[in-house]
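Q: What does the assembled structure look like for these inputs?
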Amino acid sequence: MSDSIASAILLTLAAYIAAGVCFAFGFVFRGIYTIDPAALHAPLTFRAVLIPGAAVLWPVLLRRWMLAGKKP
Amino acid sequence: MSTGYVAVQWSRHKRLYDASVAIGIAIYLGAFVGVSKAFWAGEHGISDEVILIRALGSCAIVLLHIILCIGPLARLDPRFIPILYNRRHLGVITFLVALAHATVAVGYYHGFGVLNPFRSLLTSNTNFSSLRAFPFEILGLLALLIMFLMAATSHDFWLKNLSASTWKRLHMLVYFAYGLLIGHVALGALQADRGSIGPALMFSGLCIVSGLHIAAGLKEYRKDRGAGTLVVDAGEWVDVGAPDEIPTDRARTVCAPKGERIAVFRSAGSISAVTNICAHQGGPIGEGKVIDGCITCPWHGWQYRPQDGCSPPPFKEKIATYQVRIVGGRVQVNARPLPPGTPTTPALASGGLS
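A:
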């Protein structure tokens, strides 16, 4: 693998994860209620456990959050 | 079962289970390091870091083999079901051990140069066309990413919000990760010329895992082809057997013409039928029993009322139900599933409907 390809892969990955981490914090404190009301009174430790998954699967959650927000 | 979420659903048994796993890992690592230091002493001595890398890597692989064997073992012998309950905790622990292995390895082999360690990992070996020099580290890295994805989505929140089928498909990637790890170990040993003990053990593990899966699959196949699959009334109704052939507070599982399994329970003199697939992780409900008036899945204890397939309040899960009847002293179940949570009229075990 050439140096430029490796750099491109790592940069893309870093940007994706950075965006995911920012999204994850917003999601576990706000968006989560929109898609799953059962999380309304969940403790802080539960939200912390979700952050790694939310940081990776953020496009899926973002889509669900937006769709759930549009429902009357 | 979901009412409110917590970070980890601890119970006394789960704490005991996790403590046993932690002690087991500590003993394994201690023994591996001790034996390696004794064996590779003197002029053949290897550094502590390399021993630690091998100890952590082999430990993660042993744990992964245990995880892959638990499922088929529980299908072959119900006595293994208790160790199935905490498999997700074992998966997360395995990921953490594998992560420790990767951290030490990347730090040791790539952390002391001028390049970023990850950039060094990706660019130091580019012999993708050669088996003898293939960058086997990449295979381990891909397997680690899959294990991370599984560990990060192991909470019930993900199971519910990704949907059970998507979650299951995601977690079936463990077999792909296992394949990558076989390549990682085999090519690593080939390149380091460390002898054949590692690959031989890995091959033995592969045979055990494959053998157990094949045996469990054959058992399921035979079960589906067994008694209770006779179709009557133009494919609408499936014969289950005489009422007393269904054990009290247990089920008899039958296979509908389209292949789906139906669990027919007898409890408190009534006979009811629900899908054999638990809403939680697809566990075999028909292998569970009726506890406190509720059908209880053998895998994680999720419960459903026999008459409507709904979990008792405050839980909200639902599974499909089926109509049952008794004709000529034989229990029959309608092969068409009713929507999850649909109330049905149980048949009386003595004949007729309740």
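The two ends of chain B are 29 Å apart (CA to CA).
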